[in-house]
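Response to reviewer comment R2.3. The reviewers asked that we include at least one raw input/output pair. We reproduce the pair for Siroheme synthase here without editing.
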Amino acid sequence: MRYFPIFLDTKNTECLIVGAGEVAARKLELMLKSEAHVTVVAPEVCNTVHSLAGHTQVSLHQRPFQEQDLDDKAMVFVATSDTSLNQQIQQLARQRGVMVNVVDNTPLCQFITPSIIDRSPIVIALSSGGVAPVLLRYLRQKLESVIPANISRLGAFSEKFREKVKQSLSGVIARRYFWEDVLDGDIAEFIEKGQNQKAEQQFLAALDAAKINQKPEGQVYLVGAGPGDPDLLTFRALRLMQKADVVVYDRLVSPQILELVRRDAEKIYVGKVKSHHTLPQNDINNLIVQKAKEGNRVVRLKGGDPFIFGRGGEEIQTLIAAGIGFQVVPGITAATGASTYAGIPLTHRDHAQSVVFATGHLKDNTIDLNWPALAHANQTLVFYMGLTGLAIICEKLVEHGLSADTPIALVQQATLPEQKVVTGTLTTILANPATATIAPPTLIIVGSVVALHSSMNWYSDNPQSPEAVHR
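Raw output as returned:
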């Protein structure tokens, strides 16, 4: 992030605009939406600037720029047609520590003005750093269409009662829960429709009720984060992630998904790798109970689906014993994510009429599975957490009846740009040099459906690779 987004308090701020053509006029119009005092300096002035100069916030000086024009200024917009003059003013401003924007010359800008959606007091700013203005306009258009025009009424209402709520409810969490209930319910509807009297009556009644019980009841949400690609999150998962007070997440939650969590939520990493656990499972169970008892909304964020090799059942049993309320949000499990993005259908009428999910890492650290039940033709096997036991898996499946030529695929970091797929057979996969480059998290898919990968692989964007896209 080269350009850090920041909102400046423009009250009593002095701003300078050098230039008075139509480009400068656009900057003047923008600054007049703020509370800043604006000084405009230029020897020639266009009609638009002349008409705006009558505003009490504007001082117009029709003359060439002078260095003392920068005195006491907090920011300056340079919008002349003289390139050398623009560069000179930029250098003078930087020397004085004045923030400077040279219009349409990003390399000379210390700051840039974003695209703005103004629903004051709610203001949304968007920027592409000057590299994608058309995309920026497209995004602004989309946002303008989904953000209600009357959202400003909600902002003004919140401002009016903010201090009263702060005095009435002592805890930060209690205040947050209260405001969320207001904004999600009928009170917000009344405000948006302009029915302020009815809204205030219901608001004050709700606040009186909240005073009686200020200790919010904690809740735990077991949320499936899916296989990695944030586009595969459910709407409900995203909504809860953005309302959470505490997020307890594991190693399989991708950084891209973690970026979507509410910024000021407490994030606690409890990831596990083979033979090394940041926290043992019992400690994780106790942690989410403790955080919920403190009145927090706790999101237990798990890669894939909480109920498919995610220990969700164990954690829920602990919550039930502790009397903690909970909800479960399913996610796309790694098996379906990996198979789909690798172009390997788990079932196919010509290949497999059943599919079995198995773990390659049992509770006692063995791979003592029901091999006779697994070693059947016309079914697909998906092994979670099985990479370190790959040799044993291949050996046992052949030993119990599967053909040595049965196709097998290793799918690493499924659904992410770094996804890698290595294929072979039960007897050749270990000798494939590419197998040595595969690391967790990796799923193993076994069955004749793997043979379809070469023709159905749609995800890879490298046409020279073995995982090339086929269209």
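Residues 461-471 have pLDDT under 50 and may be disordered. Residues 266 and 359 are 31 Å apart (CA to CA). Further pairs are available on request from the corresponding author.
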